[in-house]
């Protein structure tokens, strides 16, 4: 395996030295481009008290292209599909090499706090959200309780 670029090493070190509240990202021992990520749902969102597992992978051409990020925890959100793929501008058209892993993870955490049914990836969820937002929020809370409850140590 090729040596890791300095940039990835620096970003990884920064994730440890300056942790982001509510977010952990730990590189896999087998592949230092693969991160196991945990994001806590924002307190004012239907995902509050949830702890979501994600995977983040840095492709060979990172930082010229965006990291690949996917939810592993099942989530009811208009911008995250059943496969855990995320509809987020910084992962697509608005990616810039100036962005970092932490910026991406903060953006995902912000997306949990502000679902956008007008730019959906999960069309069925977005439609539910538009038809009856309160009911959709309740489903999101139920799914969070069912699938994303924090593990007690």
Automatic annotation (TrEMBL):
Keywords per UniProt: ATP-binding, Nucleotide-binding, Transferase, Ubl conjugation pathway
Keyword Transferase: yes
Record InterPro entries: UBC (IPR000608), UBQ-conjugating_AS (IPR023313), UBQ-conjugating_enzyme/RWD (IPR016135)
PROSITE patterns named among the record's database cross-references: UBC_1, UBC_2
CDD domains in the record: UBCc_UBE2N
SUPFAM superfamilies (alphabetical): UBC-like
Domain UBC core: residue ranges: 3-149
Active-site residues annotated for this sequence: 87 (glycyl thioester intermediate)
Family: Belongs to the ubiquitin-conjugating enzyme family.
Protein name as annotated: Ubiquitin-conjugating enzyme E2 13
Biological source species: [Candida] anglica
Lineage, top ranks: Eukaryota, Fungi, Dikarya, Ascomycota, Saccharomycotina
